[in-house]
């Protein structure tokens, strides 16, 4: 018997595309790949679907499959030529194929059709890969480019890091990693750097030195700042203990908590005792209002140790002294 021809549900392709883009937007890359792959199989010549599918593969770390798709799109002339080439070069860098990066960029420049606004970008990437080719067994050496932190103005440096979310970060990797290990760097800047590295799937161990903390962190194994288990546990405890009786107080305590978790990231308040830190936040806010706080009474209210509570309030005060910069 002949196989029956399967007729796709009307508008299925568009729906798959829509759902795939939604997952991509919310960083659910595996789900996005699955949906966009189906849409791409239904219409492989569709530029919008192909480009979205390529980005999903890249973000999900499926570099070999993404590389093959790039070559296919470039060969068939599907999608924006330079946009596809940009993704292709980034895939090659992720895979450590610097010979291919150099060959590709030189070919693009030789074509003399590179837009002027992209020329500097390509030249920096070319220099970066040539340096890696010349020193394949040595630690990465900084490419000769203007340092990311050339200014002492913190706001300017913050904006530069924020812009890296949509740029190639690899010419700046050494500099970024050095600032993570610099105990004198502002902890807010260090957290921004970690977030950028995570967004670019820089999945390797990095050394972070911040306050009295010093540790090796695997970026692919840490959750975003406000999704860590202890943050969620402590926030929920504050809601149960404070929000119903005093919503304004809860809001103020949570605002302080958010600042401190951001500053400390990827480390956390220690020890991981929700009652202790809830009590410390409660006591600290009381001091802000000029109250003569009773450590023993607060400790009893939250079932926390009085001596540990006093030390924790002191630590919160030190964190507040170097709190987040005002933009």
UniProtKB/TrEMBL annotation:
Is Cytoplasm set as a keyword in this record? no
The protein's UniProt keywords, in alphabetical order, are: TPR repeat
The positions making up the signal sequence are none
- Source superkingdom: Bacteria
Question: Is the keyword Transcription regulation assigned to this protein?
Answer: no
Q: Spell out the residue ranges that the record assigns to TPR repeats.
A: 13-46
Under the heading Pfam families, the entry gives: TPR_19
Recorded hits in InterPro entries, A to Z, give: TPR-like_helical_dom_sf, TPR_rpt
Protein's recorded name: Tetratricopeptide repeat protein
Q: Which organism is it from?
A: Heyndrickxia oleronia
